[in-house]
Amino acid sequence: MPSPSQPLLRDVGLSGLLVTFSDTLTDGANSAALAFRAAIDSADVEGILETTTSLTSVLISFDISLLSRDDLRVCVLEMLGEQDWEAAPLPTPHKLWHIPACFAGEYAPQLGEAAELAGISEARAIQEIEATTLRVMTLGFAPGQPYLGSLPDNWNIPRQTGLTKSVPRGAVTVAIRQITTFTNSAPTGWRQIGQMAFENFSIDGKTPIALTPGDEVRFHAISERTFAKLLQNPGAPYSDLPGTPSGNGGASFEVVGV
Fold it and tell me: Which interval of the chain is the signal sequence (predicted)?
């Protein structure tokens, strides 16, 4: 398994290099991937075309007519040796999002099951989710779908053995100490514990995807009645939350680390 001092480098096709900090998800490995990607982007190496991150890896795409694979490997290895990337701070600036969500009634059909697996009451489950600042670890599966982590250790609960045929747009789901939210209705093996009106993906928006890897999220529990009002008017700001109103499903954000 790769370690902070020995990340694994893999060739991807003719013009890709994958830098993997761990084969299993940890907060440190994810932090390393985010920080190292930011460093690569800031280095402005001629021939590097694009970078992207998964949960624990950085994919570097390069122009083989401008940069050889050997030279890229030398550059990457030199940068990797500069510091312990797992201890590196998150890229700045980033945003801390405050997102209202309903964890009750029809909007949270599997909260009780998830809480039981986590060994706590439903009320305690909501408290722990609200109290945890979750990092946007990566985006994937569908446009704008974030994977948020990490919840406390007791939330290391498995996915379902079967599939839920469809969760609604805005569904808040949980598994393996992570939360993911859905930009559109879809099948899933994760348990739905809530629902939000915040829309992270809008094809017509100036910024199609609001959340960026490295951003952070705090959920704030609201009542079924308040949530129903948000669903009727998702563009309205929700003034009970801190930060700058975004007018997107009641969510607001603060810019951190400027």
Answer: none
Q: How far apart are CA 105 and CA 198, in angstroms?
A: 19
pTM here is 0.92
The tens digit of pLDDT for each residue in 91-136 reads 889 999 999 999 999 999 999 999 999 999 999 999 999 999 999 9
Number of C-alpha atoms within 13 angstroms, CB side, residue 31?
15
For residue 72 the two structure tokens come to: 């890229």
Nearest to 1 by CA among 21, 18, 19: 21
Q: Cα–Cα distance between 9 and 182 in angstroms, integer?
A: 32
Closest CA to 247 of 209, 198, 195: 198
Residues 160-195 as b/e (b if ≥16 CB within 10 A, e otherwise) read eeeebeebebbbbbbbebbbbbbbbebebebbbbbb
Asked whether 233 and 241 are in contact (CB, 8 A), the reply is: no
Instruction: Quote the CA–CA distance of 136 and 214 in Å, as a whole number.
Output: 5
**What is the per-residue pLDDT for 246?**
72
Whether the CB-CB separation of 56 and 30 falls below 8 Å is answered with yes
